[in-house]
Write a structure and sequence with these properties.
Largest sheet: 7 strands, mixed
Number of strands: 11
Order of helices and strands: EEEEEEEEEEE
Structural class: mainly beta
Distance between the termini: 40 Å
Length: 120
């Protein structure tokens, strides 16, 4: 079992910055990758950025160069530093954790989501 707790969303003006945080509270589970997704109203969730415990990172092209994902897998924590925010970044952002339970089943878990609004 994994419970993901997110923080850091809010309202910011265009060009501003926000930092999202997510910590996983785990029981008999090994997290190997963490990610941030976002969802626009009426749309599907889309991957924003992902980090593997090896350090490998990947980004959606719309945030490349503006967002930075980092993680501390000893603490099951992931961050998303978002700079030069644009109105089109407005969405609900969800933390995702991916890994293995004690039965070696590959599972993923989601946080409840945090709203990011970019508006003047």
């Amino acid at each position: 079992q994994v419970k993901l707790v997110e923080s850091g969303g809010g309202l910011v003006q265009p060009g501003g910055s926000l930092r999202l945080s997510c910590t996983g509270f785990v029981d008999a589970f090994k997290i190997i990758a963490m990610a941030w997704y976002r969802q626009y109203p009426g749309d599907v969730r889309e991957l924003v950025a992902r980090i593997h415990e090896s350090g490998t990172r990947s980004y959606d092209w719309t945030v490349e160069g503006r967002f930075t994902i980092s993680g501390d897998f000893r603490r099951n924590t992931v961050y998303l530093q978002m700079n030069n925010l644009k109105p089109e970044d407005t969405a609900v952002y969800y933390c995702n954790a991916d890994g293995y339970n004690s039965m070696n089943d590959r599972l993923e878990y989601w946080g409840p989501g945090t709203q990011v609004t970019v508006s003047s």
